[in-house]
Amino acid sequence: MNFNKHSLLQYHLITIFMAAGALFSKYISIDAIQLTAWRTLIATIFFIALYNKRLVILKTLTKKDVILQIFSGILLGTHWITFFHALKVSTVSVGMLSLHIYPVLTVLLEPLFHPKRIHPSDLVLALIVFIGIFLLVPKLELSDTTTQGIMWGVFSAFLFTLRNLIMSTWASNVSGSFSMLFQVSVIALLMSPIWLSSGIPSANDLGFLLILAIGFTAFTHTMFVRALRQLNPATASLISCLQPVYATVYAFLLFQEIPTGSTVIGGLLILSAAMVESWRFKKRLKVQIN
Fold this sequence. Notes:
This protein is mainly alpha-helical and 290 residues long. It has helices at residues 3-19, 24-27, 32-51, 63-89, 92-99, 102-109, 120-136, 145-170, 176-190, 192-197, 203-228, 233-240, 243-255, 261-289.
């Protein structure tokens, strides 16, 4: 099998695997803040054990690199907290769909980081996403849990987009695996008052936290980085748009969560806009290469 095809298949499998990570919000009883604190602590221990011989790279980091990694770590940690909170207060499908507006958010925020203009078609896609989000909202009331989930999910998508743009603009000289190690360590350190004072989670929660931290954070990210070395970023973004679909199927099979008709229509609009934007990026990338 061609190695690039192997990477494509590997990324598809990673996407299926990563989509299941959202389900842990339903299995783990502790709140999103404690969940993130313990997740990052366990992942940090695993990462250090895995990459201990490569930690000499710390000596090569500039002051700018360290500041960017710390700030990106804060954004990543807040993204995880808000994302898991969105999943806890609403449904898996709503939380995942709200997060996956990030490809369009990336296009809208990119001019703040790179000298480029927003194309009118980008505004059309943004409008489609807005309509999709509107359809997800059952009631325009802050007391409604689904509305709360959408708001937290959209905020989480904004944080995720901002972190990715910062990383790609100013921190691309640091490897993905080491960036993840550094940032997860920053989150674990900043959240140390949480895991020091909250007490050890129950056996059930701890078991799921170990799986989430090692299987769905450290291991999955390592495989993700390896696959991306042979895969076009736009192709990867297109495949990532399938995550909400997989997660919705998992939630239906495990929790009998059935999305409403408006959620399905809104989700299709959001995912369609995200996929079109990723496809357009792929075309622009081909033009630049040729």
